[in-house]
Design brief:
The complex is a heterodimer. By secondary structure, chain A is of the alpha+beta class. Chain A has four domains: 107 residues, Immunoglobulin-like; 129 residues, Immunoglobulin-like (Sandwich); 117 residues, Immunoglobulin-like; 110 residues, Four Helix Bundle (Hemerythrin (Met), subunit A). Chain A has seven helices and 32 strands. In chain A, strands 21, 23, 24, 25, 26, 28 and 29 form a seven-stranded mixed sheet that branches. In chain A, strands 10, 12, 14, 15 and 16 form a five-stranded antiparallel sheet that branches. A four-stranded antiparallel sheet of chain A has the order 1-3-5-4, covered by helices on one side. In chain A, helix 5 runs antiparallel to helix 6. The relative contact order of chain A is 0.06. Chain B is α+β, with helices and mostly antiparallel strands. In chain B, strand 2 and strand 3 form a beta hairpin. Chain B is built from eight helices and seven strands. The chains are: A alpha+beta, B alpha+beta. The interface between A and B is large, with 57 and 61 residues.
């Protein structure tokens, strides 16, 4: 058993030396910022067994009183990680100091011997701050405003009974940003810090700050602890979270505050129990809601004169391009790609515009990015590939791709451009030769056809046209003209009123009464027939027939011939036979008027006439 | 006697006033004509910036006509084309604005329509959705003549309609009456359309709600007149919008595709 233990010890010792051979580290540790009435703990630690404590040489602590030390402590640990064994050794020399005066004090280097070699620590510069009459660590008796009570002697009596309250001076949240005046898209860092003089509190609830109108990315943040001075007092600080933010619009933006519910343990000297428990310590818990102040950030407009290719990129970039294959055949695909690399708001960079000649068809741009976000903003690269197909053979010149950004260093726009590309496209035989050159070239953009090779027409030349902006429509002249002509119309109407009425009446009556008149005349003819007056009969017959047509069709008698009658009847849908019969009756009457004839002829003519007129009347009325 | 004296005095005053206005008018007219000529020369020599300045001055001096706006638009277009980064300073927006102004004053200006079409092709936004057949026919027919042309046409049609009505009433020849009646009906229809065209062109040209985005700015369109509100889209220069109302320094506009939003009034200019 003893042997085995020995063996193990030796093994441990060997392993320990092995592991630490590579690096002997002798370090000094002290808070960099202390208050004048605070005790300072300075530690010198070595990770290797020294040749003896007497080889340790402490520096002279100028400006400090040594309250205690050096106290020596040794620690040893063993660790297995994934089967790998680590043994750590640590020897620490600790001093407790009290600063004598405010200001910067240097703690010089300490030294120690390991294996006959002397190791030195680096010297440390310690800043001592005089907090005035403020008592260290003790919570302020009165909460509330921080500056007014700072120098109040009432609060600086350490041994009096102290209420278990925590002043807003002793613990607060602060959201700090790296810059308060930025351009749109410029990245800045926002850090949420807890400042405390009462130790690390127990966090019960957490409301993150709200970054409206900001692009936000939270960084990996450890609860990084450090010390800082604020308003002449020394605080322990804890970094709670850290963000990279970039404003997305211009104007005055506000980051709404973060909130933290904490429970703080306060140790007080309880002096109230006079007697046996005099001077006992009491631990009480104070609940507090901490709120950071809202932060206003002014986002500046970009200056005037942005180039056309500027699309809101901010930072510092470079542009490289991969040219397409210089020779290709028509109707095959090719690709141009550009890479924008650098730092800035890469995530918001849009693809630069590629202007292709007319017979090129551009397809959807492919985007690949490789962007990392660190405390200083986003950086990396973004690559745009423009695939295209050329439809016609020829030599082509492709204009350079232009990318502009706003340089934050110089506060100026910078425009980057690639080299122009030259492309030779050979025919693939499938495109008709005639179609390539003279035809108008159309291309489709965003769903609509555009004719591409047009140019604007020339200006108007000649003398400056005298321009009157007056409108004729609804102008006084317009109304005057209208009223004038209406008046003329009315006058003519009034003057001719009688004739118009007559006109209308005569025509209408004649038309309406044509058949009645005809019937009347036929009746008279019939009377003549009965009385045996041949001449009178045929006269009446002719008058009835001519008159009927004249009245019915409103044609003056003088204009009537048999031809016109035939035409008129035919036009009104009377059959050719009836029209012919009508004309024949007229002819027979004409002949019979002066020629001797038998009585029976009169009756026949009369019956025929009545029959044909009633037929015509039927057709026309319909 | 006193009446005659009074008349003399009044006429003297009127004469003096008339000569004053004439003198003033001729003064600015002479300058405008000189600037106009300077612009023509500069444009011909390819000095588009100088041409633009000269014509802008003419526009300031007096009421500008369609020809002036057309030339001014051409100068802006060429100026924008000329620069290294085409249309970087909002020239395209100004060109579109002035073509539209020219067309507002003279809708039958074929050159302005052609050039506007080209300028609009350079804007990034889809300018407008295809119009309906009837709507585009309406605009096309209306655009063939100016307001005054339509007004004269309407007066002529009115007079002809009256004359033919008289012929209809007085004639006793049926054919003539029927023809007259038919033509009167046609003339009344034509008169109604001509009058509507003339009035609508007058209304369009004197009270425009159209505006053009003139800045090459990255200012987005918001959902409400407030910088903090939701961003709807990014207008590009040269896009024509319809102004619905304004509120403070903001204007509510409607895009060709029917989308509405608020933009700062400073980046648009009424046609």
């Amino acid at each position: 058993m003893i042997r085995i233990r020995h063996f193990l010890l030796v093994l441990v010792a060997i392993l320990a030396t092995w592991n630490s051979w590579a690096q002997v580290a002798f370090k000094a540790e002290a808070p960099l910022l202390v208050s004048l009435n605070e005790r300072v703990r300075v530690e010198f630690s070595i990770n290797e067994e020294p040749d003896g404590d007497n080889t340790f040489q402490a520096p002279t602590f100028e400006g400090f009183n040594i309250l205690a030390g050096p106290s020596v402590s040794t620690g040893m640990g063993m660790q297995w990680i994934n089967g790998h064994q680590t043994i750590s050794y640590n020897r620490t020399y600790t001093f407790i100091l009290k600063p004598l005066s405010a200001g910067k004090h240097t703690i010089g280097s300490a030294s120690i011997m390991v294996d006959g070699k002397r190791y030195n620590t680096k010297s440390i510069i310690l800043e001592v701050i005089d907090e005035g009459s403020k008592v260290n660590n003790a919570p302020s008796q009165q909460g509330g405003a921080r500056d007014t009570h700072q120098k109040d002697p009432q609060t600086s009596k350490p041994d009096k009974r102290v209420e278990p309250t925590v002043s807003s001076d002793d613990i607060f949240l602060m959201l700090s940003v790296s810059d308060k005046e930025v351009y749109k898209g410029e990245a800045l860092r926002a850090t949420l810090m807890l400042y405390t003089r009462v130790g690390y509190p127990d966090i019960r609830g957490f409301d993150l700050p709200v970054f409206n109108d900001f692009w936000t990315q939270e960084l990996q943040s450890l609860n990084e602890r450090s010390r800082a001075e604020y308003n002449g007092r020394v605080y322990d600080t804890y970094k709670l979270s850290e963000y990279v933010i970039a404003p997305q619009r211009t104007g005055d933006l506000t980051i709404s505050p973060a909130e933290l519910d904490v429970a703080i343990q306060v140790v007080t000297q309880d002096n109230s129990n006079q007697g046996f428990f005099y001077g006992s310590r009491k631990v009480s818990v104070v609940n507090r809601k901490l709120r950071s102040a809202p932060v206003a950030i002014k986002v500046l407009e970009f200056p005037e004169g942005a180039p056309a290719s500027f699309n809101g990129a901010v930072g510092s970039f470079s542009l490289t391009a991969k040219a397409p294959e210089a020779e290709m055949s028509a109707n095959s695909s090719n690709e141009i790609s550009v890479t924008i690399s650098g730092s800035g708001n890469l995530k918001f960079v849009t693809a630069p515009r590629l202007k292709l000649p007319d017979s090129f068809e551009l397809y959807d741009t492919k985007v690949r990015d490789n962007i990392t976000t660190t405390a200083s903003g986003a950086s990396g690269s973004i690559t745009y590939s423009y695939p295209f197909v050329v439809r016609a053979a020829g030599e082509y010149y492709i204009e350079p791709i232009v990318f502009s950004y706003f340089d934050l260093e110089t506060k100026q726009y910078k425009t980057l451009a690639t080299e122009p590309f030259v492309l030779t496209v050979t025919g693939d035989g499938s495109v008709a030769e005639g179609a390539k050159s003279q035809d108008r070239v159309y291309a489709e953009y965003g769903g609509r056809m555009k004719q591409l090779d047009r140019d604007i027409r020339f200006i108007h030349t000649g003398a400056l046209p005298v321009h009157s902006l007056s409108f004729f429509i609804l102008s006084p002249l317009y109304w005057l003209l209208m009223v004038l002509f209406v008046a003329i119309f009315i006058v003519i109407y009034v003057v001719m009123r009688k004739r118009i009425r007559e006109n209308r009446n005569i025509v209408a009556r004649r038309m309406r009464q044509a058949d009645k008149v005809a019937v009347q005349r036929l009746r008279m003819a019939q009377r003549s027939m009965v009385e045996g007056r041949r001449h009178a009969f045929y006269e009446e017959m002719l008058r009835a027939m001519w008159g009927y047509i004249s009245d019915k069709f409103n044609i003056p008698l003088s204009n009537l011939t048999k031809e016109t009658i035939r035409e008129e009847l035919y036009r009104r849908g009377v059959s050719a036979a009836d029209a012919e019969q009508f004309c024949q009756i007229i002819s027979r009457s004409d002949e019979a008027q002066y020629a001797p004839s038998t009585d029976s002829d009169m009756g026949e003519v009369y019956d025929d006439a009545v029959a044909v007129i009633s037929k015509i009347e039927d057709v026309i009325k319909r | 006697m006193s009446i005659i004296n009074n008349i003399k005095r009044v006429s003297a005053v009127v004469l003096a006033l008339l000569s004053l206005t004439v003198a003033y008018a001729t003064d600015s007219k002479v300058e405008a004509a000189a600037e106009w000529q300077r612009g023509l020369d500069a444009y011909s020599n390819g000095e588009y910036g100088a041409a633009r300045d000269a014509w802008e001055r003419v526009a300031q001096l007096g009421p500008a006509g369609a020809e002036l706006y057309y030339n001014l638009a051409n100068a802006y277009y060429r100026l924008g084309q000329q620069s290294d980064a085409p249309f970087a300073n909002g020239e395209l927006g100004r060109a579109v604005l002035n073509y539209r102004r020219a067309l507002r004053l003279n809708p039958s200006d074929a050159d302005a329509r052609y050039n506007l079409d080209i300028a609009v092709d350079h804007t990034n936004d889809a300018e407008s959705l295809p119009q309906g057949v009837i709507s585009s026919m309406w605009t096309a027919v209306r655009g063939t003549m100016s307001s005054n042309g339509w007004a004269i046409a309407s007066v002529v049609q009115f007079i002809m309609a009256l004359v033919l009505t008289l012929i209809y009433l007085l004639s006793n020849t049926i054919v003539l009456r029927k023809v007259a009646f038919f033509v009167v009906v046609l003339l009344v229809v034509a008169f109604i359309f001509s009058t509507i065209f003339a009035i609508s062109e007058r209304v369009l040209s004197s009270d425009s709600q159209e505006a053009v985005v003139v800045c090459n700015s990255t200012t987005p369109v918001h959902a409400s007149p407030d910088n903090g509100s939701k961003i709807i889209r990014q207008p590009s220069q040269g896009v024509t919008v319809k102004v619905l109302r304004s509120h403070g320094e903001w204007s509510e506009v409607e895009f060709a595709d029917g989308e509405k939003g608020w933009i700062p009034s400073s980046i648009i200019e009424l046609v």
